[in-house]
Amino acid sequence: MKKRVRNFTAQLIAKSLIWTGALKKAKAKALRGDHILSIYFHKPTKEEFEYVISWLSKNNFNFIDLEDLQEIRLGNKAFPKGAVLITVDDGWGNNEVNMAEVAEKHQVPITIFLATEAIEKGYFWFSIAKKAFAKKIGTPHSEEMKMLPNQERMKIVQSILSQLPNDREAMTLGQIKKINEFNFVNLAAHTHSHPILIQCSDEEAFQEITTSKAKVSEWTGKTITAFAYPNGDYGTRETKILEEQGFLLGFTTKAVPMTPSALDKPYELPRLGFLEGASKEENLCRILGIWKTKKNLTLK
């Protein structure tokens, strides 16, 4: 009930942004080359992803990949007009059918950032934490757990695992091997256990980043040069690790368009988030960068 009310309210707000011309203005700015639309997903349905691809294509946007972005950043390519960069966080099992196969079909490049422990074990800690909270077994909500020191969070996760079954939600290694052969799918690093990096010790942060890079490289046979911060949380320590470990690009969840000046900070690149389950109108406002998040309109 709360979700329906939230989505209805958000849809009304989004429609007002469309009716007042805000969406049209934002689209015009992107098409004339003011910025790149850097859009990220988690686990959309096939219909949701296809709608976004179709809408962007029909509205004369074109899709770029990470190699293009790096060339643009270095000045080897001109800053583009109407460019869209698509990334995906975590590595959910349904990403293969709902995103990778769709991207391959429409020849739209996407990059999936993998939390490597989830690929190996099958579960995402924040997902099982939400289930545990819903079952009222006495553990905090996943959003509260993100605020805890990493070791404390890990103890709670282990407690949950001892009480609840954890069905596989992440992609398998077999799926990774399969989509690694796709022409329009790139795989990159998203830490090992998907911790909140700023809650980690120096050693934990280093190991999380380097382990994920090594494992994705091993699975794909490729050099991994891009990284996305879990939950978008990072600091100067994390950007320094990325630079020292040979990463070229680091992605945040700063919900602003990617302007030419944003490329001056390659380890702090912004992304506009798509919200699974929200209305088409709301998500158009989100991916065009005109949606202002309200706390009471956040899906839990």
UniProtKB/TrEMBL annotation:
Domain NodB homology: 82-300
Entry keywords, A to Z: Signal
Annotated localization: Secreted
SUPFAM superfamilies found in the cross-reference section: Glycoside hydrolase/deacetylase
GO terms (BP aspect): carbohydrate metabolic process
CDD domains named in the record: CE4_NodB_like_5s_6s
GO cellular component: extracellular region
Primary location group: secreted
Coiled-coil stretches noted in the UniProt entry, renumbered to this chain: none
GO molecular function: hydrolase activity, acting on carbon-nitrogen (but not peptide) bonds
Protein name: NodB homology domain-containing protein
